[in-house]
Give the backbone structure.
Amino acid sequence: MPASLVLSFFLSVVIILSTSDFSLCQALDSREFFEARIRPVLVNNCFSCHTHSQLGGLRLDSREFILRGGKSGPAIVSGKPAESLVIRAIQQTDDRLKMPLGGRLKDQEIADLITWVKMGAPWSESAKQPQSAASVKEFSITPEQRSFWSFQPIQKPILPQVKDGSWPTSPIDGFVLAQLESRGLTPARMAHKRVLLRRASLDLTGLPPTPEEVEAFLKDKSPQAFSRVVDRLLASPHYGERWGRYWLDVSRFAEDDMRAGVPEGRESYPNAWRYRDWVVEAFNQDMPFKQFVREQIAGDLLETDDTNSRLNRKMRPAAGTAFFGLGPWYYDTDAPPEGRANERNDRVDVLSRGFLGLTVACARCHNHKYDPISMNDYYALAGVFAGTEYAEYPMAPESTVVEFKKQQRRIKDQEAALKEFIESKSQQLGEILIRKISNYMVAAWKVVGNSKQDLQSAASEAAPDTELLEKWVKYLGNPQKDHPYLKSWFELLSHGGSLDQARKIADDFQR
């Protein structure tokens, strides 16, 4: 066999083997890429919500499920990252589609997922499918969780024994002194009256004492002097303003909506001040905490007759329900289902954080990893809010509301009559002025034409309104290139013409 033929055959075999090896390596590389770069991202960020839970009807634990997608359609389009919902979600370019919840993937992880979709979303089926922690075992509350101190009923503690029994003036002082003595410490000496008054004033009202209040306290030598100061500060309206602010922070109170894209005119919540005043009044009236909680959760279902209120408060219980009722959803009652879901999630979060001191929101996507809250518990609570409806309640007696509505009807009737009168008179005036167009145009020509008369002498009985004539002069004396009906008028104005020519154009325009 010739040497050239042998060499050609050898090269052909090398090329075939190289091509085969390249395809095999490429397949191996894609599986390795998936296992090393893609599967860990899905497990750590997606599986807690999109395996057995199937939030949004979507599962992400197999290629078949991903291509099938959920309620919003296929999760990926093989080879087309720009058309894949998963890529849009992790890039967070769509306000309604941002994943994963509570954060954003690293830039490298996003780039890897885009590359994976471009590769056709290869999936290694041979490897054992890892499961999310939420699906490994059934949820159960352990004895250790049940015995946690914050879940125990409140009990009256036993007062500790102290060495210096003369120092405590209240049970709380006993606990403070016991801890000091256990560490070999002694209480600090009593503060000067001026310092004590300043501390109490700033603590209870957030304001420093006035010179008159300082002088009166320094002169009061009785044992009850400081008690009287405390009673005075607790009775001050500034007490509720000072301490109510802390609860307004817990309830996420705001009078303005600072979100981007809020429609103009809807930047503020019209009745937010009512809830603010209700909170301040609750503190000033020393409302029991049990009642404070009840009126914010279900104040619209409680007695609304002020005469039956044990505290005789100015604000009715329904005002407290703004704890849940005020927010971005206040004026967005036609929000889409996903917007309503966010509304419920916000309410669950503020309720659990504010009243329970728990981060229940973690159970929105999986059983809580630390607190004894399951995903079922979360959605059972969210279901309570899913069944609520918006309603407005009057903050005045029924007789006042009835009279107010009567007055509103009278005002609307008067406004309608006034509108009808103005429209009628405007139409009549328009018809009168239309009939006098020719007269005003002729009078205007006397001013802007060759004669150049002054405005007063140009006005006549045919065009008696000098102010209106002045407007005609201003308009007709300034040529308008884009006015087809006055073209002949402006040509006459440019080349000069007689009063009769102007009158003919005015008569034609009148017709």
Q: What stands out?
A: The radius of gyration is 40 Å. The mean pLDDT is 80. Residues 18 and 145 are 62 Å apart (CA to CA).
